[in-house]
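Quick log. Single chain, no ligands specified.
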Amino acid sequence: MSKDVDKELSDKYCPRFAQLAVEKGFVSPDNAKVALSRQLDDDLAGKPHKLIGSIFLENGWMTPQQIETILNELFDR
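-> predicted structure:
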């Protein structure tokens, strides 16, 4: 598959919470990278899995209302 087709399918069927949060201006790309890195580090260390939205909330980068906005958009797709 071409990269364009891969991206189209990914956007349609597997949107990412962090990507949408950045696109909406709720978090910076750097915040998203830090949160994704923390999530992966915890997963690799055998710690309980944390959702990206939880990491954003814990760090004060997003409000509960912003998280709800992203989740509603994800579920509407």
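The chain has one domain: 17-76.
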